[in-house]
Amino acid sequence: WFRFSLLAVTLRVSLQCANMPGNSQCGRAVINAMTHDFVLHPDQFIGLSVKSSYTEFQAYFHNAGEMHNCPRPCLEMEQACVPWTPNFPGIGSVHDIRYQMAQHPNWWPELSSKSSDKEIAKALYTRGAKGIPRVCEDDEAPGHHIDYEEAASEQTESDIKAVQELLDRQKSHGTDDGSNEGGAGDDGFAADGGSSAEDGAWSDGSEDEASPADEKEVSSGETEESKEASEEEA
């Protein structure tokens, strides 16, 4: 967990950010990781999940030593935004991508057939598509952006909070799982799948072995029968 926490809050300092296109060396590595490598080797992508975004995978490769020539991706709100309207710049590219998604859905793992034009535009921006600016959030003014240092600070705080919440959930989950370990459950069975000590009716189908007390009673009975047989013969 220490490695995960460190990765989540570490930001490699760079003056310029760059969201890399899917046809670049970095972009191809990111898409391959999202659609193939992570499925086969999730343990190699510490801090990521099946829900991680294109940007998060690019950041992972960048923080791992600029693997695949991946530069630092732009942080949220680091670049100026443009409001979403029917005349949004690059709307033609959005329509082209929707057609491309129908032919090659695996090229766009972060999208689906139900994705809106706005969501596609955001995906194009994160992939560094030429002529596609960042889409303003609903409460953002046109041209709004946050300087790198401020954006990095806010992103770090958000990452720390997310990591802490995850660790708390894991801790709570572990406590719940271990609270009844080795004991009997409500149904009378032990945690290992066998019967609890209080449930004497459970049997594996084999014949019960006689206890020492039972053997003593049997021996006593045999002695009485032998004694009566001897008296009749006499």
Strand order of the largest sheet: 1-2
Order of secondary-structure elements = HHHEHHEHH
Helix content: 40-55%
- Proportion of strand residues: under 5%
What general form does the structure show?
A: globular
Notes on the protein architecture:
The chain is an all-alpha fold and 234 residues long. It is 47% helix and 2% strand. It has 7 helices and 2 strands. The chain has a two-stranded parallel sheet. Helix 2 packs across helix 3. The longest helix has 31 residues. It starts with a helix and ends with a helix. The N terminus is likely disordered.
Gist of the model:
The chain is mostly helical and 234 residues long. 47% of the residues lie in helices and 2% in strands. Helix 1 runs antiparallel to helix 6.
